[in-house]
Amino acid sequence: MVLDRLIQNTKDTKHSLFKASGVWLFSFVQYCSHVTEVHQRLREAQASFMRLLSARDDMVQETASRGLTLVYEKGDEALRTQLHYRFDPNPNVQRSMNNIWKATVKEPTAILNQHFDLIMEDLLKNIVGKEWRAREASCSAISDLIQGRKYSQYERYYSTLWVVSLKVIDDAKGSVRKAALDLSMVLSKTLVHTLESSSENTSTKAMMGQALEFLLSDKLSGKTTR
């Protein structure tokens, strides 16, 4: 199928090939997204445009940015909830994704609240994924997501957040380690803030209970203390 070839070619190192493939893929999404076979592969198209977005060629970046905008407009809301792309280490990717987010998501607070679990589960998957950029971006995205929220909103993930943040602190990539350390600091600050709050006694006990359970467990064994 032509679409298979185009998606594959966006992974090619030959500049002229992935440049042309990006333009053709954009055209497919723009004019053929109503076709079932194309619509079902919008997530793959999204991944392809993300690869192109980090290219140095201005035309390729512009094509990728416009392609991503189309994907988010024509796809379902689940595509828009992949929050870690907004925190990509590449400044061009980060800027483009923030612009796309602002253009396509009219009520960000409502979207984040409505899809909180879906977003958090996606971030927890990517924070321990194979790509260092996704790990770093997910650390930053989680830090941003939980700040200012009530503990009850992310209570079910609290222990897991501690586990993965300390796991990624041992990452081979320095910038990923820093992002993981920042996430650990955010978790610590939210704990302190909740302990200082007198209006959420139930949440305070639950949060402290999970924190103590984690700190006294063997999950800290072998972890670095930076």
Provide a descriptive summary of the structure in words.
By secondary structure, the protein is mainly α. It has two domains: 1-75, Leucine-rich Repeat Variant (Alpha Horseshoe); 107-221. It is 72% helix and 0% strand. It is built from 14 helices and no strands. Helix 5 packs parallel to helix 7 (91-104). The radius of gyration is 20 Å and the shape is elongated. The model has no long low-confidence stretch (mean pLDDT 86). GO terms for molecular function: molecular adaptor activity. One of its GO terms (biological process) is ERAD pathway. Keywords: Proteasome, Repeat. One of its GO terms (cellular component) is proteasome complex.
Question: Which blocks of ≥5 consecutive residues have pLDDT under 50?
Answer: none
Number of distinct helices: 14
Beginning-to-end CA distance, first to last residue: 50 Å
Proportion of residues in helical segments: over 70%
Overall pLDDT metric: 86
Summarize the helix and strand pattern as letters. HHHHHHHHHHHHHH
Structural class: mainly alpha
CA-based gyration radius: 20 Å
Count the E strands: 0
> What sort of overall outline do the alpha carbons produce when their principal axes are compared?
elongated
Number of domains: 2
- Biggest sheet layout: none
Organism: Ceratocystis fimbriata f. sp. platani
Protein name: Proteasome component ECM29
GO molecular function, one term: molecular adaptor activity
Keywords: Proteasome, Repeat
